[in-house]
Amino acid sequence: MQTPQLALRMEAGEAAPLAGAGGRAGGGWGKWVRLNVGGTVFLTTRQTLCREQKSFLSRLCQGEELQSDRDETGAYLIDRDPTYFGPILNFLRHGKLVLDKDMAEEGVLEEAEFYNIGPLIRIIKDRMEEKDYSVTQVPPKHVYRVLQCQEEELTQMVSTMSDGWRFEQLVNIGSSYNYGSEDQAEFLCVVSKELHSSPHGLSSESSRKTKLLQARGTRM
Protein backbone atom coordinates (compact mmCIF):
# COMPACT_ATOMS: atom_id res chain seq x y z
CA MET A 1 0.00 0.00 0.00
CA GLN A 2 1.43 3.37 -1.06
CA THR A 3 2.09 6.03 1.56
CA PRO A 4 0.55 9.50 0.92
CA GLN A 5 4.02 11.00 0.48
CA LEU A 6 5.02 8.42 -2.18
CA ALA A 7 1.73 8.86 -4.06
CA LEU A 8 2.20 12.64 -4.20
CA ARG A 9 5.78 12.25 -5.51
CA MET A 10 4.66 9.85 -8.27
CA GLU A 11 1.83 12.17 -9.32
CA ALA A 12 4.37 14.98 -9.58
CA GLY A 13 6.40 12.87 -12.05
CA GLU A 14 9.18 11.84 -9.72
CA ALA A 15 10.61 8.32 -10.00
CA ALA A 16 9.95 5.92 -7.19
CA PRO A 17 13.07 4.88 -5.24
CA LEU A 18 14.85 1.85 -6.63
CA ALA A 19 13.93 -1.16 -4.52
CA GLY A 20 16.89 -3.18 -5.72
CA ALA A 21 19.73 -0.76 -5.24
CA GLY A 22 20.75 -2.64 -2.18
CA GLY A 23 18.32 -0.93 0.17
CA ARG A 24 15.07 -2.12 1.69
CA ALA A 25 11.64 -1.69 0.11
CA GLY A 26 8.41 -2.29 1.97
CA GLY A 27 10.28 -3.45 5.04
CA GLY A 28 12.31 -6.15 3.25
CA TRP A 29 15.06 -6.62 0.71
CA GLY A 30 14.13 -5.43 -2.80
CA LYS A 31 13.98 -7.82 -5.72
CA TRP A 32 16.27 -5.93 -8.11
CA VAL A 33 19.95 -5.19 -7.56
CA ARG A 34 22.23 -2.81 -9.44
CA LEU A 35 25.93 -3.59 -9.72
CA ASN A 36 28.51 -1.13 -11.02
CA VAL A 37 31.34 -3.36 -12.21
CA GLY A 38 34.33 -1.36 -13.41
CA GLY A 39 32.07 1.47 -14.60
CA THR A 40 29.46 -0.74 -16.34
CA VAL A 41 26.10 -1.09 -14.62
CA PHE A 42 24.41 -4.51 -14.50
CA LEU A 43 20.82 -5.00 -13.36
CA THR A 44 19.79 -8.38 -12.01
CA THR A 45 17.68 -9.97 -9.31
CA ARG A 46 18.63 -10.81 -5.76
CA GLN A 47 17.58 -14.41 -6.44
CA THR A 48 20.12 -14.69 -9.27
CA LEU A 49 22.98 -13.34 -7.17
CA CYS A 50 22.12 -15.66 -4.27
CA ARG A 51 22.14 -18.81 -6.41
CA GLU A 52 25.63 -19.74 -5.20
CA GLN A 53 25.39 -19.32 -1.45
CA LYS A 54 29.13 -19.16 -0.80
CA SER A 55 29.89 -16.63 -3.50
CA PHE A 56 30.93 -13.03 -3.00
CA LEU A 57 27.80 -11.82 -4.81
CA SER A 58 25.48 -13.85 -2.58
CA ARG A 59 27.08 -12.47 0.56
CA LEU A 60 26.93 -8.97 -0.88
CA CYS A 61 23.20 -8.97 -1.60
CA GLN A 62 22.36 -10.67 1.68
CA GLY A 63 23.71 -7.67 3.54
CA GLU A 64 26.89 -9.15 4.95
CA GLU A 65 29.55 -6.66 5.96
CA LEU A 66 31.66 -6.62 2.81
CA GLN A 67 33.78 -3.68 1.74
CA SER A 68 31.78 -2.38 -1.20
CA ASP A 69 30.85 1.27 -1.65
CA ARG A 70 27.91 2.51 -3.70
CA ASP A 71 27.72 4.99 -6.57
CA GLU A 72 25.30 7.92 -6.80
CA THR A 73 22.46 5.62 -7.91
CA GLY A 74 22.97 3.22 -5.02
CA ALA A 75 24.58 0.50 -7.14
CA TYR A 76 27.26 -1.62 -5.52
CA LEU A 77 30.73 -0.62 -6.73
CA ILE A 78 32.92 -3.58 -7.70
CA ASP A 79 36.40 -2.85 -9.03
CA ARG A 80 36.62 -5.70 -11.54
CA ASP A 81 36.69 -6.06 -15.33
CA PRO A 82 33.11 -5.80 -16.71
CA THR A 83 34.12 -7.68 -19.88
CA TYR A 84 34.14 -10.99 -18.06
CA PHE A 85 31.28 -10.28 -15.67
CA GLY A 86 28.57 -10.83 -18.30
CA PRO A 87 29.26 -14.58 -18.71
CA ILE A 88 29.42 -14.97 -14.92
CA LEU A 89 26.06 -13.27 -14.43
CA ASN A 90 24.50 -15.35 -17.21
CA PHE A 91 25.84 -18.52 -15.60
CA LEU A 92 24.07 -17.59 -12.39
CA ARG A 93 20.90 -16.97 -14.39
CA HIS A 94 20.69 -20.23 -16.35
CA GLY A 95 23.58 -22.45 -15.23
CA LYS A 96 25.39 -22.52 -18.58
CA LEU A 97 28.72 -21.07 -19.66
CA VAL A 98 28.32 -19.16 -22.91
CA LEU A 99 31.35 -17.28 -24.28
CA ASP A 100 31.93 -15.21 -27.38
CA LYS A 101 34.51 -16.80 -29.66
CA ASP A 102 37.08 -14.07 -28.93
CA MET A 103 36.68 -14.15 -25.15
CA ALA A 104 39.54 -15.71 -23.21
CA GLU A 105 38.51 -18.46 -20.82
CA GLU A 106 41.43 -17.52 -18.56
CA GLY A 107 39.85 -14.12 -17.95
CA VAL A 108 36.48 -15.60 -17.01
CA LEU A 109 38.23 -18.11 -14.75
CA GLU A 110 40.06 -15.33 -12.94
CA GLU A 111 36.77 -13.54 -12.25
CA ALA A 112 34.96 -16.75 -11.28
CA GLU A 113 37.66 -17.39 -8.68
CA PHE A 114 37.37 -13.84 -7.37
CA TYR A 115 33.59 -14.18 -6.96
CA ASN A 116 34.06 -17.71 -5.57
CA ILE A 117 31.61 -19.48 -7.90
CA GLY A 118 32.70 -23.11 -7.52
CA PRO A 119 30.64 -24.86 -10.26
CA LEU A 120 31.71 -22.30 -12.86
CA ILE A 121 35.37 -22.66 -11.87
CA ARG A 122 35.20 -26.43 -12.44
CA ILE A 123 33.48 -26.05 -15.83
CA ILE A 124 36.10 -23.60 -17.12
CA LYS A 125 39.01 -25.70 -15.87
CA ASP A 126 37.56 -28.81 -17.55
CA ARG A 127 37.24 -26.93 -20.83
CA MET A 128 40.81 -25.67 -20.64
CA GLU A 129 42.13 -29.15 -19.88
CA GLU A 130 40.28 -30.58 -22.89
CA LYS A 131 41.81 -27.91 -25.14
CA ASP A 132 45.29 -28.55 -23.76
CA TYR A 133 44.87 -32.28 -24.41
CA SER A 134 43.78 -31.75 -28.01
CA VAL A 135 46.73 -29.41 -28.65
CA THR A 136 49.33 -31.77 -27.15
CA GLN A 137 48.06 -34.85 -28.96
CA VAL A 138 50.63 -36.16 -31.42
CA PRO A 139 49.22 -36.45 -34.95
CA PRO A 140 49.14 -39.97 -36.40
CA LYS A 141 52.17 -41.20 -38.35
CA HIS A 142 52.13 -43.19 -41.55
CA VAL A 143 54.45 -46.17 -41.75
CA TYR A 144 55.22 -47.59 -45.18
CA ARG A 145 56.41 -51.05 -46.11
CA VAL A 146 57.85 -52.18 -49.44
CA LEU A 147 57.30 -55.87 -50.18
CA GLN A 148 58.99 -57.74 -53.01
CA CYS A 149 57.04 -60.60 -54.53
CA GLN A 150 56.64 -62.63 -57.69
CA GLU A 151 53.66 -62.43 -60.01
CA GLU A 152 52.09 -65.66 -58.79
CA GLU A 153 52.26 -64.43 -55.15
CA LEU A 154 50.82 -60.98 -55.80
CA THR A 155 47.09 -61.79 -55.64
CA GLN A 156 47.38 -63.76 -52.43
CA MET A 157 49.50 -61.12 -50.72
CA VAL A 158 47.11 -58.24 -51.52
CA SER A 159 44.00 -60.23 -50.54
CA THR A 160 45.43 -61.27 -47.17
CA MET A 161 46.54 -57.82 -46.00
CA SER A 162 45.08 -57.04 -42.56
CA ASP A 163 45.79 -55.30 -39.27
CA GLY A 164 45.16 -51.87 -40.78
CA TRP A 165 47.62 -52.16 -43.67
CA ARG A 166 46.47 -50.56 -46.91
CA PHE A 167 47.67 -51.08 -50.48
CA GLU A 168 49.32 -47.96 -51.93
CA GLN A 169 51.29 -48.75 -55.09
CA LEU A 170 52.52 -51.61 -57.28
CA VAL A 171 55.77 -51.32 -59.24
CA ASN A 172 56.84 -53.82 -61.90
CA ILE A 173 60.60 -54.26 -61.71
CA GLY A 174 60.85 -56.74 -64.61
CA SER A 175 61.71 -60.44 -64.79
CA SER A 176 64.45 -61.58 -62.45
CA TYR A 177 63.80 -65.31 -62.32
CA ASN A 178 63.31 -67.97 -64.94
CA TYR A 179 61.55 -71.21 -64.12
CA GLY A 180 61.72 -73.59 -67.04
CA SER A 181 60.41 -71.86 -70.12
CA GLU A 182 58.44 -69.13 -68.29
CA ASP A 183 59.71 -65.89 -66.84
CA GLN A 184 58.32 -64.80 -63.46
CA ALA A 185 57.79 -61.03 -63.15
CA GLU A 186 58.95 -59.33 -59.97
CA PHE A 187 56.91 -56.61 -58.25
CA LEU A 188 57.40 -54.11 -55.47
CA CYS A 189 54.22 -53.67 -53.45
CA VAL A 190 54.00 -50.52 -51.30
CA VAL A 191 51.61 -50.67 -48.32
CA SER A 192 50.96 -48.20 -45.50
CA LYS A 193 49.46 -48.06 -42.03
CA GLU A 194 48.39 -45.19 -39.78
CA LEU A 195 49.91 -45.36 -36.30
CA HIS A 196 49.09 -43.20 -33.30
CA SER A 197 52.12 -42.40 -31.20
CA SER A 198 52.11 -43.14 -27.49
CA PRO A 199 53.83 -40.83 -24.95
CA HIS A 200 56.91 -43.08 -25.24
CA GLY A 201 57.02 -43.09 -29.02
CA LEU A 202 55.94 -45.77 -31.47
CA SER A 203 54.88 -49.13 -30.18
CA SER A 204 57.18 -52.13 -30.27
CA GLU A 205 55.14 -53.52 -33.15
CA SER A 206 55.72 -50.44 -35.29
CA SER A 207 59.42 -50.46 -34.41
CA ARG A 208 59.69 -54.09 -35.48
CA LYS A 209 57.93 -53.39 -38.77
CA THR A 210 60.08 -50.36 -39.39
CA LYS A 211 63.18 -52.49 -38.97
CA LEU A 212 61.69 -54.99 -41.41
CA LEU A 213 61.14 -52.21 -43.91
CA GLN A 214 64.71 -51.04 -43.48
CA ALA A 215 65.99 -54.58 -43.98
CA ARG A 216 64.00 -54.99 -47.17
CA GLY A 217 65.19 -51.65 -48.43
CA THR A 218 68.78 -52.69 -47.80
CA ARG A 219 68.28 -55.93 -49.74
CA MET A 220 66.77 -54.06 -52.67
UniProtKB/TrEMBL annotation:
GO annotation, cellular component aspect: Cul3-RING ubiquitin ligase complex; cytoplasm
Region (Disordered): 197-220
Residue ranges constituting the BTB domain according to the UniProt record: 31-132
InterPro entries on file: BTB/POZ_dom (IPR000210), SKP1/BTB/POZ_sf (IPR011333), T1-type_BTB (IPR003131)
Signal sequence range: none
GO molecular function: cullin family protein binding
Pfam families linked: BTB_2
GO biological process, one term: positive regulation of cilium assembly
SUPFAM superfamilies: POZ domain
UniProt protein name: BTB/POZ domain-containing protein KCTD17 isoform X7
